[in-house]
Design goal:
The protein is mainly α. The chain has helices at about 15-20, 40-55, 75-85, 100-105, 110-120, 130-135, 150-160, 170-180, 180-210, 220-225, 250-255, 260-290, 300-310, 320-360, 365, 370-405, 410-435, 465-500, 510-520, 520-530, 540-555, 565-585, 600-620, 625-635, 650-655, 670-680, 700-730, 735-760, and strands at about 30, 60-65, 65-70, 140-145, 230, 240-245, 445, 445-450, 450, 455, 655-660, 685-690. Helix 9 (about 180-210) packs antiparallel against helix 22 and helix 16 (about 370-405) packs across helix 18.
Length: about 775
Amino acid sequence: MQDEIALMPLSPLEDREALNPNPTQWDFVLVCDDHERFSEKNRKKRRFLEELSKKGFLIKEIKDKKLFNGVQAPSGIFRKYQWLLRNPDIESERLCTQQQEEQQGVPVTTRISIVSYILQNTEINPDEKLHDLIKQKVFETAFPLHEREKLNKFLELNWARWGAIFHKQPIEEIRAYFGEKVALYFAWLGWYTCILLAAAIPGIFLFIIGSIYFSSSQVSKEICEAKTTVMCPLCDQKCPFWALSDTCTYSKVTRLLDNEGTVFFAIFMALWATVFLELWKRKRARVVSGWKMYWWDEEEEELATDLIGNPDHPPRQYQHSYFHSTVVLILVLLMICLIIGIAHALVIYRVVVTVIFTQSNSELFRERATTMAVLTGAVLHYLTIIIMSKVNRRVALFLCDLEKPRTFSDRERNYTIKLFTFQFFTHFSSLIYIAFFLGRINGRPGDYVRISGKWRLEECHPSGCLLDLFIQLAVIMTLKQTLSNFVEYMCPCLIYKCNLLRSNPKNNGRVHMEERVQNPCKEEWLWNYQLNEVNIFSLFDEFLEMTIQYSFTTIFVAAFPLAPLLAFINNIIEIRLDAIKMVKLQRRIVPRKANDIGVWLQVLEAIGILAVIGNGMVIAITSDFIPMQVYKYTYSPCLQENNTGIDCLTGYVNYSLSVFNVQDFENRKEMAEFNDLMGNNITHCRYRDYRNSDDYRYSVQFWHIFASRLAFLILFEHVALCIKLIAAWYVPDVPMKVKNWHLREKNKQLVEKLRVMDDSTDV
């Protein structure tokens, strides 16, 4: 197909060279279908391109299966940008002449960012901008071009390949190609991954120590030997009594996780979370100071770009509506209630599945009913996370539109807070139930709490509630970090391969070479078009994924000490996956300036506080650490004379089980018939609780343990928060070297100003 090339600059001919010093550099490409000449879509397209031409833009049209319109901005726009936003970190630049500034030019990332802003805000009608034209199918898409022969090749060789998985990231080159915001993301991700290693090593050490003493725990020994201890049935119909020794293996696994070292590891992780953020603040200060971006002002940048695009357009005003805020707040609360309701549905699912497995004809299912319910519930929870993530995004965007944010940055900030809130409840509502409510609101034998008066609420695993939480965390983290990464990489890769196959030219090599000589832009534009489209929130999605992972790694780490190790392994792979996607599989992301990671820092700090609360509650409520300590120092045989050689936890299992008379069951007739059929003659059974055997009221031991749990929780959280505050004070946010550098620069600027003033006075 023959190409049609049209140049449409409306500026004077004598100014074209000055406005476009590099006519081969195209800042953006607009793609559309070849509309009929007199159609409404074609008319809007021409009007939009004419508006750009009036602003001095050079436009080149290439016709293939689609119409490609290359856009190049005049250099005068960037001279205005340099004049309005001279870098405040280098005040001496204010003394440079205008000619020196013009020779210096602007970085390609800044150039693309400015052009993108102007394109997005160019109007053909009062409320019709590029975004609206793309929705109306006037244009299919708009994107900046990759530089295949320049920096892109360097990043492909030194960053975006699996062979560089253990190499240091070229942050400066990433910044030069993708802009400061992307570079800061990878700098943060690399730093987070390195610091994860410091958390993974103690977690591995704790797991190894637990493995060494896997079979030597006194509690596990007593459970394994308790073959005559009859436990109450786990369901109502056709459920047999069972021996406590049946949970021997599970009790050993529980002791692997639930030991004295867990407390110290939880405190260590609270300190780790604080030190990680403080050290990141220091690294960020060094990085942005080296980029001369420390004093960069986002609002000033936005105002300057607005003036460049349309000097007559007044700045958009800040707005606030109490009515809109009230509506948004109510809708957010309703959305959170919906997510919590889904968590309750998962609870009902586990209850029903436990009953089904228990009544199954398979002996394996009957014996593993609770474990199977927890495992399948975890998989179902993961599926709900995938589905609700899509729903949460749409709702968050809708709520952001209701608030009518002033700028894209404001919109992104509001979107971040709302979507992270929804995602946090989606991921953790079920985990919070398992950690703090499972087995504590289900009642007791003879007086169970039931759903719809029929199904008993599920109980903790017979070996303890911590094992249920461990299984849930392990399944979700493993699935999320394997399947999600696989889909995240394979989908763009397959789409890109399909696009290449569809657009493979049937021309012979000679014709293809002739086309390249006649029109060198065509091949580059087609290749960029075949790449995957980049969402405006693509970088946001990467941050969100990592902050959710950070939540899993810190909030319930007491129940899953291997979480930092899994996160570390995942992130090593994640960095290369993201690099390959951005460099090889996706169109070039529009660069954006930034001097920090924005609202994500506040999100991470909030997660650090939740980690202290969550781990304290896991140890105090979910684990058996407190009941064991109460027994050891209040009721154990070590308190008696001449018993110094005995293990202080001897007798703990019997102490932690209450006695129930089977005649007091609600369905005692059915159970009696079933037990007669099974040949059992059982009058009493045991269950996990601290109740009297006559009236089933809470015993004195229960209140001792309750008071100890509350005291430990208060003490743990105060100690951990104090450690966090001390660490935050002890480690300065900005290194003294960076502060002194800024101090010298400010002094140098003032001295230079004073000298200029003295010289002008003398004259």
